[in-house]
Amino acid sequence: MAIKINIGSLNDGSQVLELKSDEKELGIEEGFLKEPVSIKLELFKTTHQLDLKAEISGIIFLECDRCLDRFEQKFSTSFQLVFVQQTHREEAFSEDDIRSYSSHMKSVDITTDIREAVILTVPMRKIPEEKPDGSCSWCGRTKEFWKDILSEKDDDNDND
Question: What tens digit of pLDDT does each residue of 111-126 get?
Answer without folding.
Answer: 999 999 999 999 888 8
